[in-house]
């Protein structure tokens, strides 16, 4: 029996946190497979440079803050206006601030909570109506973390946001499956990117040598999207061989 993966050519995917790390790697892998991408991020300069790299026929830029309901709607609108539809969304934007629950200011913790959880909800609320209207099916792939299953010391608030994402994904799978929308939480362990550098991690941390890289996680996201429509993956945890699970 030959197992056939879905062809992603000309599918349209919206990605938040798209200008670095996992988001950028996911956009690159999707475009290599012929998909079109609507890219959201705060850094407009990086965003437009990425669109030039991927090709303006393949990508559209939407400078945005995922904490904004209006900005998330703009990301989805950009996809529909440029490519005529939206097949899938990848809520990937997130920040990490590590340390004791007493180490950081109220504003710092509030920014992380609103970015990681509220930002995921607003992206999904913007995307689902257009997915149902333009394609009648689709995928939501939330990039979360293994911290959403086993939070460690000095990351309690961060882990709380990841537990919330995992819970959201599980509940949405039950809610949206019958409408043809699959929901997956992709949950990596540590990834050697600029994530949380200056907020508990340091640039070129020696631990990065044993960690996952952004392309590992992007491959998981793409693999979920490639599954036949008769199959769904609700949770995908991944670790490098050098990390203790």
Indicate the overall shape: globular
Q: So, CATH architecture?
A: 3-Layer(aba) Sandwich
Average pLDDT, rounded to a whole number, is 93
Q: Strand percentage, roughly? A: 15-25%
Rg from Cα:
17 Å
Sheet with most strands: 7 strands, parallel
Number of structural domains: 1
**How are the strands of the biggest sheet laid out side by side?**
3-2-1-4-5-6-7
Give me the secondary-structure category. alpha/beta
CATH structural fold name: Rossmann fold
> Any low-confidence stretches, pLDDT <50, length ≥5?
none
Helical fraction: 40-55%
Distance between the termini: 34 Å
CATH superfamily: NAD(P)-binding Rossmann-like Domain
CATH class: Alpha Beta
What characteristics describe this protein?
Rossmann fold, seven-stranded parallel sheet, 7 strands, 41% helix
Compile the SSE list and pairings:
Blueprint: E1 12-16, H1 21-32, E2 36-41, H2 44-54, E3 59-63, H3 69-83, E4 88-90, H4 106-134, E5 138-143, H5 156-176, E6 181-188, H6 214-226, E7 235-238
Parallel strand pairs: 1-2, 1-4, 2-3, 4-5, 5-6, 6-7
């Amino acid at each position: 029996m030959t197992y056939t993966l879905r062809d992603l050519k000309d599918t349209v995917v919206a990605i938040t946190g798209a200008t670095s790390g996992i988001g950028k790697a996911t956009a690159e892998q999707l475009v290599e497979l012929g998909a079109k991408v609507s890219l959201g991020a705060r850094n407009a300069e990086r965003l437009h440079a990425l669109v030039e790299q991927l090709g303006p026929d393949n990508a559209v830029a939407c400078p945005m803050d995922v904490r904004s309901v209006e900005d998330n709607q703009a990301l989805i609108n950009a996809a529909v206006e440029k490519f005529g539809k939206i097949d899938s969304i990848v809520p990937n934007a997130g920040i990490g601030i590590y340390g004791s629950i007493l180490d950081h200011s109220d504003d710092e913790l509030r920014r992380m909570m609103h970015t990681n959880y509220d930002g995921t909800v607003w992206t999904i609320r913007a995307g689902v109506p257009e997915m149902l209207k333009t394609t009648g099916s689709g995928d939501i792939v939330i990039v979360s973390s293994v911290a959403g299953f086993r939070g460690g010391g000095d990351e309690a608030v961060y882990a709380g946001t990841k537990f919330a994402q995992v819970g959201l994904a599980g509940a949405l799978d039950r809610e949206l499956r019958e409408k043809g929308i699959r929901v997956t939480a992709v949950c990596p362990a540590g990834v050697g990117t600029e994530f949380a550098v200056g907020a508990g991690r340091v640039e070129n941390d020696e631990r990065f040598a044993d960690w996952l890289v952004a392309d590992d996680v992007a491959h998981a996201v793409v693999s979920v999207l490639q599954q036949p429509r008769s199959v769904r993956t609700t949770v995908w945890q991944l670790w490098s061989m050098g990390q203790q699970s």
